[in-house]
């Protein structure tokens, strides 16, 4: 009986051993080729490529885990491979997937209270490829057995270098880091090929316990290299662990040459998107903007942005969103940020006036003091240099960026019509109604973006045809997607004015960054308090827009459009025009070239462009406010207040009349509606009387030359019973 029991036990043992041996050749899961593993793998980052396939910027898209590039063993430092084998699998090249002596040792250590996994690199790869085989909290024997069977099956199909390649890319390290490339870049700021001996030991020591305490990881690395804890190299490793492992992932963000556009376009992990950017132009634009901002050091300038568009196609050739390291807000994209437009909207205003045939390029405009009553109060525009030129042509007014003639022009065409013109040009940031902006639109009293502004100037370059910009070659716009938003004739005349160095000499002189050796139309702009300045212009092929300022809103110190943005614009435009033959701009049909003579000699005779039917041979200024005395103070429509805390006999309102040349109005009188008369030869100090008043400026014969209406109000003193006088 006992013999039969022993035989049965022996037979059962043999059967069990045979079954276990046979099961070693049956994998829990089919073995997939390494090519399939590579194909299913995705980097956490995506790449923006230029039009020729050259990498420009790398952006992290997957924020659940961080993977770098897929790498081969040849792309990894030999020191790291040696450290990994020493730490994880000393007999890697000798076993067939399972290290049996290592497994027995691990089992014995477990029985004696130690902790050792015994998993080979191949077993770790098996768990990475099939997550159900990963070691769980239970760490049961059956799970380990299944993992061993899968590892044996993998080694029957894969070569050792393929196993090592998969391990290098699939192994988790610290936190969200997965794969050697991501770990090396994030923790040490370098590629895996550049890991030295100490870095390799630290990285290999993370595999067994990726989130262990830093001191423990450093001790393990020192032990791996057989270093004493007080040795110089071990102390270096401890310091490296404290710095790199704690702060590394946040420090080594990848930006590249076009990070702002990359963030807008890239959305899928592993994506490699071809854009319309040209790497050569993009890098030159970045370098040029950065260099010029360095040159403005000391003038409180931190930020800038630049955009280059291809005129015929709308393709974006360069997109520089910020000044990078110079900026305290480098993540802000200056190409799409809203900023004050300054004088850059004036070309569209004059194009509208020319299109409506209200003005021509030869028309005389009045550059003399002006006060406009608006719902928000009195609007008194000033020229940049606080002087006035009197009678000046539209050509000179636009090219020299005079402010007062622009405001007079918007009163002529109507601020509602100008508002509609800007909306049609794509200025969607005008999100209030026309009355909100009123006449200040003429001087850029609205928020725009560099993208909108540059594309609007591209509309001028394209003869009034407006179309969307293009960022990828597959997003080409169709011909029917554009719109004729202004006449080709008006666009051509405005472009001709903006390319005229003689016309802009009044303000900018003949030698400025705006003067090019090829035909280029350009306009600068500076917002209030020098918070923004712009230079936007175009050649036959390209439109370039530049913004310089501070994202914080701080004003710059003595930096205008011609000194801040214009030098950058000029250098980039020169770069784009290298090797390009200058082309003669062909006028569209419906234009007439006519010689013009100014009867008063205010401007030299010249050849001028006219919309057919508006041409003239002689321009004679008549009835201009710039040619006769006028009331400067008080301003028409103004409201003044008497201060109750100042004695009434100490308060005075200045009455002043000036002529265009800013000389006193000789032989003239101020005449009030109550019959009071005061001489206008010199400023008069008039005691303000509460109420509504009218005052005329009359000559010696009593002929009225100018008239203003204004109001003086008496304010209530706090706590008093006095009512305001109206």
UniProtKB/TrEMBL annotation:
Any one of the GO BP annotations: peptidoglycan biosynthetic process
GO CC list: outer membrane-bounded periplasmic space
Pfam annotation, one family: BiPBP_C
Top-rank EC class of the record's enzyme: transferase
Domain Penicillin-binding C-terminal: residue ranges: 625-710
Domain Penicillin-binding protein transpeptidase: 304-540
Ranges where the Glycosyl transferase family domain occurs: 55-223
PANTHER family: BINDING PROTEIN TRANSPEPTIDASE, PUTATIVE-RELATED (PTHR32282), PENICILLIN-BINDING PROTEIN 1C (PTHR32282:SF15)
Family from the record: In the N-terminal section; belongs to the glycosyltransferase 51 family. In the C-terminal section; belongs to the transpeptidase family.
Protein name as annotated: peptidoglycan glycosyltransferase
């Amino acid at each position: 009986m006992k013999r039969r029991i022993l035989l049965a036990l022996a037979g059962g043992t043999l059967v069990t051993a045979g079954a276990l041996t046979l099961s070693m050749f049956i994998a829990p899961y089919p073995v997939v080729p390494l090519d399939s593993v590579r194909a299913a793998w995705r980097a956490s980052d995506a790449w923006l490529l230029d039009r020729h396939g050259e990498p420009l910027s790398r952006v992290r898209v997957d924020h659940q885990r961080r993977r770098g590039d897929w790498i081969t063993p040849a792309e990894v430092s030999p020191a790291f491979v040696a450290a990994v084998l020493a730490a994880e699998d000393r007999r890697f090249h000798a076993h067939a997937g399972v290290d049996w002596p290592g497994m027995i040792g691990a089992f014995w250590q477990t029985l004696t209270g130690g902790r050792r996994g015994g998993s080979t690199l191949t077993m770790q790869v098996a768990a990475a490829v099939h997550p159900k085989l990963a070691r769980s909290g239970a760490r049961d024997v059956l799970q380990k057995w299944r993992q061993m069977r899968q590892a044996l099956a993998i080694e029957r199909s894969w070569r050792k270098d393929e196993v090592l390649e998969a391990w290098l890319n699939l192994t988790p390290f610290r936190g969200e880091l997965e794969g050697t490339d991501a770990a090396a870049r994030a923790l040490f700021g370098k590629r895996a090929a550049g890991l030295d001996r100490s870095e390799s030991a630290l990285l290999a020591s993370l595999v067994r316990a990726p989130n262990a305490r830093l001191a423990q990881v450093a001790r393990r690395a020192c032990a791996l290299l057989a270093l004493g804890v007080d040795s110089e190299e071990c102390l270096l490793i401890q310091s490296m662990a404290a710095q790199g492992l704690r702060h590394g992932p946040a420090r080594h963000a990848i930006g590249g040459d076009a990070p702002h556009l990359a963030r807008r376009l890239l959305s899928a992990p592993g994506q490699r998107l071809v854009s319309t950017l040209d790497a050569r132009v993009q890098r030159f634009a970045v370098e040029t903007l950065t260099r010029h901002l360095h040159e403005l050091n000391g003038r409180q300038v931190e930020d800038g942005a630049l955009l280059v568009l291809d005129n015929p196609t709308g393709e974006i050739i360069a997109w520089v969103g910020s000044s990078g390291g110079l900026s305290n807000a480098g993540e802000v994209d200056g190409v799409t940020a809203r900023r004050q437009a300054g004088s850059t909207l004036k070309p569209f205003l004059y194009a509208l006036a020319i299109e409506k045939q209200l003005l021509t390029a030869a028309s005389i405009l009045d550059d003399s003091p002006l006060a406009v009553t608006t719902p928000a109060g009195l609007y008194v525009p000033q020229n940049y240099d606080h002087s006035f030129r009197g009678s000046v042509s539209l050509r000179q007014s636009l090219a020299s960026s005079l402010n007062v003639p622009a405001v007079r022009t918007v009163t002529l065409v109507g601020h509602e019509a100008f508002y509609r013109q800007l909306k049609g040009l794509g200025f969607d940031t005008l999100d209030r109604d026309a009355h909100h902006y009123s006449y200040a639109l003429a001087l850029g009293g609205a928020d725009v973006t560099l993208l909108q502004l540059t594309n609007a100037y591209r509309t001028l370059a394209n003869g009034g045809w407006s179309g969307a910009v293009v960022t990828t070659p597959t997003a080409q716009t169709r011909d029917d997607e554009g719109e004729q938003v202004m006449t080709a004739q008006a666009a051509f005349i405005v472009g001709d004015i903006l390319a005229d160095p003689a016309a802009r000499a009044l303000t900018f002189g003949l030698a400025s960054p705006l003067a090019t050796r090829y035909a280029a139309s350009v306009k600068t702009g500076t917002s209030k308090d020098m918070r923004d300045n712009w230079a936007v212009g175009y050649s036959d092929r390209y439109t370039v827009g530049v913004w310089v300022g501070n994202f914080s809103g701080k004003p710059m110190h003595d930096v205008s459009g011609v000194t801040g943005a214009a030098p950058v614009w000029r250098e980039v435009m020169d770069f784009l025009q290298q090797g390009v033959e200058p082309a003669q701009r062909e006028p569209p049909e419906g234009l007439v070239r006519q010689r013009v003579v100014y009867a008063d000699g205010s401007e030299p005779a010249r050849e001028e462009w006219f919309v057919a039917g508006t041409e003239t041979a002689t321009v004679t200024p008549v009835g201009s406010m710039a040619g006769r005395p006028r009331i400067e103070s008080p301003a028409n429509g103004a409201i003044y207040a008497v201060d109750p805390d100042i004695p009434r006999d100490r308060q005075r309102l200045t009455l002043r009349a000036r002529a265009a040349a800013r000389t006193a109005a000789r032989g003239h009188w101020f005449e009030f509606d109550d019959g009071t008369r005061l001489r206008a030869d010199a400023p008069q100090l008039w005691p303000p009387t509460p109420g509504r008043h009218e005052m005329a400026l009359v000559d010696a014969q009593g002929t009225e030359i100018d008239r203003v209406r204004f109001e003086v109000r008496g304010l209530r003193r706090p706590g008093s019973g006095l009512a305001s006088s109206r």
